[in-house]
Design a protein that fits this description.
Layout (H helix, E strand, L loop, with lengths): L10 H8 L6 H4 L18 E12 L2 E9 L10 E2 L2 E3 L7 H13 L7 E5 L3 E3 L4 E9 L13 E8 H5 L4 E8 L2 E10 L2 E3 L1 H17 L15
Parallel strand pairs: 1-7
Antiparallel strand pairs: 1-2, 1-4, 2-3, 2-8, 5-7, 6-7, 9-10, 10-11
Helix pairs in contact: 1-5
């Protein structure tokens, strides 16, 4: 058993939460920019893609890996993301896509990962992708080898940081010439927003809804201001 003794959150809590019903759109919209479409336009066929949320302990504290995308990528350049990418014909499933892409981007070894389950798919308007998030766990910190063509920086984020309301913020931006209200997570010098924040919002909602509340600090329990 891997304990997160400083937070009260263990991988057993996460496994139990992943066996429950997903919060879905109700949780996703809490960290979604506004305005933002959640469905493709009529007649538009989106591509299928997958991302991986991988958990692992560092000194007994559960962490997850995020990547900062390099500035020359076609979509979401320079933004913080989960490892992932598009489905390819050789992929036996969308779960396999998530594992393959995570290996290509960060050096994760799929055979060392325990896949805990999927989260709710999400439409991404700029790239016209529907991403299928999967949650995985490995009992030891991976020997990451970020791909320099795709990953400018690897972020190792304590899971409890995302459960802390103080980590969430919001701003009004002008994005591509139009006003946009943007919720985001503050992770060091980075603002984690957009699709990544939406996926993380559902995952953290799943934890706070289904984890035994008494095991979490009061500020992280459901209904805390």
């Amino acid at each position: 058993m891997t304990n997160s003794t400083t937070t009260g959150l263990t991988i057993e809590h996460v496994r139990a939460a992943m066996r429950g019903p997903l919060p879905g759109l109700e949780a996703q919209v809490t960290m979604a920019p506004c305005p933002r479409p959640f469905d493709p336009l009529p007649g538009v066929e989106p591509r299928q893609a997958s991302v991986l949320l991988v958990l692992y302990p560092i000194h007994g504290v559960l962490h997850l890996a995020l990547t900062v995308r390099t500035p020359d990528l076609n979509h979401h350049s320079g933004q913080v993301s989960l490892p992932g990418g598009g489905w390819e014909e050789g992929d036996a499933s969308l779960q396999k896509t998530a594992l393959r892409e995570a290996q290509e981007e960060t050096g994760l070894v799929p055979d060392r990962l325990e896949v805990l389950g999927p989260l709710t798919p999400l439409y991404i308007p700029p790239s016209n992708n529907i991403i299928h998030p999967f949650v995985a766990y490995t009992p030891q910190r991976p020997a990451f080898r970020p791909n320099p063509k795709e990953v400018a920086e690897l972020l190792e984020v304590p899971l409890h940081l995302l459960l802390d309301p103080a980590t969430r913020s919001e701003e009004d931006w002008i994005w591509r010439g139009a006003p946009l209200h943007v919720p985001f997570y503050v992770v060091g010098k980075h603002k984690v927003w957009g699709a990544t924040a939406i996926v993380l919002a559902e995952f953290t909602a799943l934890l706070t809804q289904l984890v035994v509340p008494s095991s979490l600090p009061p500020a992280w329990r459901p209904g805390a201001p």
